[in-house]
Amino acid sequence: MDAIITTLNLIIPTAIFAATPLIFTALGGLFSERTGVVNIGLEGLMVMGAFSGIVFTLIFQGLGLGAASPWVALLAAMLIGAVFSLFHAVASITLKADQIVSGVALNFLAIGLSVFIVREVFGRGQTDHIRERIWRTNVPVLSDIPIVGNWFFSNVYITSYIAVILVFVVWYVVFKTPFGLRLRSVGEHPMAADTMGINVNRMKYIGVMLSGAFAGVGGAVFAITTSGNFAGGTIAGQGFMALAALIFGKWHPFGLFGAALFFGLAQSLSIAAQQIPALANVPQVYLLIAPYVLTILALAGFVGKAEPPKAIGKPYEKGGR
What angle separates helix 42-62 from helix 238-248, to the nearest 10 degrees? Predict the structure, then answer.
């Protein structure tokens, strides 16, 4: 029994930590895809968020902001993610380009642009390491609760709690407010929404920009809490995992939350494997590829059962069908 609890003490906090960037990014993807715009570019938006988060933390800590530096950098990453998503919005909404192609192009653009700037500014393939980080903390009183305190309230990041709170906030906004109703109506039947006086393209732009803002924060959180600097490989598939969590979770905040925790668990096994007796002898390469294999299996097994918004991927022609 003690061995099981010890193992869970290692896996659960790590799973929550690994799932946090996925939750932020998948919530962003929810806004975009609920308006009918497929956003394959979540990976690229996370890249820009990670790049912005590190660069602005370096700038702000140089200006003497101290411990506030990474938090202000998160806001900067949110803004840059939203602005960068306009490339996808203009191409897929205004120019009515293929949304998959536009998203893939956004991924290539983000990686190429960020790496180019890093090489030009820092003279090498990665940035300097940041001094100011978002550190783990213990929640007073709650961290003293036996067993559960170790799992959910000890040695955790504040960003993890923010991500969980945002799951409930996004659920309320999307399903309980007039804004959310307009957002969903545009993704389900844009012509009917247009007839009711809703500006379809404006709602689509808002959805895509919100996806950029959330994904930017997701990338910045990963870079600031985990890597401490930025390079071309800092974000390695997390955006696609977030997209998979969104589909696996059936485009619902609570569903994607559970899916992100599932993928976070897979990542935690590769991180904490050496400290878990049952996994200590498993070749590391198997554990490293496990999250990506589970992503593929989840999509292959559930994508056909998940019903997306009916107008997803279809450019809207005013007066058309």
Answer: 130
DSSP state of 130: P
Tokens of 294: 């589970």
Architecture of the 2-130+144-302 domain: Orthogonal Bundle (1.10)
Q: What are the tokens at 151?
A: 């799992």
Q: For residue 276, what pLDDT is reported?
A: 66
Q: Which residues contact 201 (CB under 8 A, 6 or more apart)?
A: 93, 94, 316
Largest separation between any pair of C-alpha atoms in the chain:
66
| Host H or E run for residue 156 | none
Which of these, 226, 205, 232, lies nearest to 93 by C-alpha position?
205
Q: What is the 3-state secondary structure (H, E, C) of 80-130?
A: HHHHHCHHHHHHHHHCCCCHHHHHHHHHHHHHHHHHHHHHHHHCCCECCCC
- What pTM was estimated for this model as a whole? 0.92
Cβ atoms within 10 Å of 9's Cβ, excluding its own: 17
b vs e for 80-107, b when ≥16 Cβ sit within 10 Å of the residue's Cβ? bbbebbebbbebbbeeeeebeebbebbb
Q: Are 182 and 193 in contact (CB under 8 A)?
A: yes
**Mean of the per-residue pLDDT values of the chain:** 88
Q: Which residues in 56-106 belong to E strands, given as ranges?
A: none
Listed by start position, the domains of the chain span 2-130+144-302
Q: What is the pLDDT of residues 104-132, one digit of tens each?
A: 999 999 999 999 999 999 988 899 999 98
